User: Fold this.
Amino acid sequence: MSTTRPRIALLIETSNVYGRELLRGIHSWASENDANWSFRLVEQGRGAAEPEWLRDWRGDGIIARVEDERIGRALSELRIPVVDVSAGLEQPLFPRVVTNSQRVVEMAIEHFNELGIKNFAFCGDRKFFWSRVRESLFRSLLEEREAPCFVRSSRIGRPDTEIGRLARWLKGLPAGTGVLACYDIRGQEVLEACREAGLRAPDDVAVLGIHNDEILCEFCDPPLSSVIPNARLSGYEAASVLSRLMSGDKVEQLKRIDPVGIAKRQSTDLVAIDDPKISSALAFILENACKGISVQDVLAKVPMARTQLERQFRKILGRTPREQIECVRMERVTDLLARSSLPISAVAESAGYEYPEYLTVAFKRRFGESPREYRARSKR
Assistant:
């Protein structure tokens, strides 16, 4: 390692929100730890070729999105520490910090389950290894639950041709299927194919993306719901790993970072349950859970015996009405803790808790840590 100010190259795309959040996390770690790193960052898109300046560059470390073996080999030849923040290679060449795909897929399935969806589909992109991993996890988790699973995974060619093929595939799915797209761009294509096929989203097909690129998701028609990764924490941890590598320390070869939650938009804004009373009760909970409602309020909206309501909720959703209210509230809490600087008292009020202390007790019971600890860990 150089005795002068450490020179760090960042081979990370600036063209999408995931890359930019990685960069924010790296910057946060360097600032908080007085690293005094000198960064080389050049604007680039995803999958960019090896930059020409890299071969003559004399640096101390690299954090890169290594998405093909060609770039991996070029980085290996430099003989300096490298941390990979992509799951693009089946056989990794460097220590990696990546999104936990297992939790991404579990969270997506849980979201579809909460909507009462019984049929599931995955739309992937075969050229990405991480897409194939998510497809495999999706299949295996649904096989365990004995739930119907449909998959379309292809190497995307001409957009117009692909949209037509997607439209034909979507027409063959059962009504009310939940489709998980391997990332938001694929989700955008699925929604476009729905329109070409004459299908309504979310009524005929509910669509969920991954990465929560807010600009892209909002431009979709309808706006695309998406799993929110914690890319900023991934960048933060990658910088920490690189620092230890440059000091000659041993490091973990793989760190998986859990996603934050689901950004819910109109593409999954439905309740697909045949029982009209339970569907109405669930819709009422989704809309009002964070207003401090109780099970009694649900019963006032959907008159029926409490024991019958709880029995049907357990049968259809696997949880009680009270647990469903708590689940919706906790989704609001975790989102606000990770993505805002609101004080805990304001977070509690926004999620329907009368006192912050009630939130802290419920949060610890559910997650094993306090809201403040969760915020510190997710934001660093």
Summary: The chain has three domains: 7-98+231-258, 101-229+262-268, 276-379.
